[in-house]
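User:
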Amino acid sequence: MAKTPTAPVVGELDAKEAARLARFERTKANRRGRRAPAVLPAKLTRTSAFAPRRKGLVTDSNFVRVYAVRPHSVIEVRGRELGSQHRDAIVALFRTRAARFEIRNPEWREAADFRVPQRVVYYETSTTWRALLQATGRTAHVNNLATLLRSLEELRAVSFRVYAGSFEQYEAGVKRGRLPSAGFSDTLISRISWEGVGLDGRVTVRYGEWLKDVFESKSLVSLDADVYFKLRSDYAKALWPYIDGKPSHSWIDAPDAVALCGEDYAAVTTRRRLKLREELRQAFDDLVTAGGLASWSCEAIGQGRGKTYRYRYVHAKPRQGELILQSTASEP
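Assistant: Predicted structure:
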């Protein structure tokens, strides 16, 4: 005898709805009045998978490296080393809203394998070369098309393995010689097509399965792209997505800042630490000049060999929730 489907528990539905409303309220309170922001996957704002430089990148197809920013992300990159120009291309792409498409799967048949879906969902960004170049802050000139296309093609050739577990799970799995945790391995871009080589020719970028899942789950973070493309320092570009993507934070420790730039603060030499701290000082000054931060300061933490530094900062644009509090406090 077939079982009667169990009705959903009202309490569970209420809890899920309450959590959804709470997320909506947090999102609303965290808005900063950005103009044409880039909406990025949260994992890509908290990763060091893009080196803070444009030249001297490893282009060997056998390149493999694990980038970890504790405890936020563990991402393995295979295919080649990525740099600031590749991050620029991603930010520009995500400045243009992706469209969702759902079509009938040509491989599906009646009584087909249950693993073959009847419908296929994918996301695409369709724009013009001119708009894409302008979004990166570059001059809209046909001479720049090949450079931009090359950056997109290099992104498409790289495989990202993203681990869903914590950094502790990753470390424990590696020590045992096992796969650390659940995850996903895919390219960010699956297809690039363009209709012409003029500035007003259409260019369409289709995203991979991982980004499709990110769009479907709404695991996205809003980034002030105007500030990003005003930055001159590649180190500042490595820090800004993390800083702007974590609105409730007002400080970052030197080891975490260095990790966002792809290096291990504890493993480098004293001379390299001094150089990295100089790069970070210039990066924070650049963030102020670009209008991302109102101010910043640095304080020493600890003593002796365990001494490190903490960078405190004030965001230049208050969150919507902060503006409401300020307005309420100013009322008689």
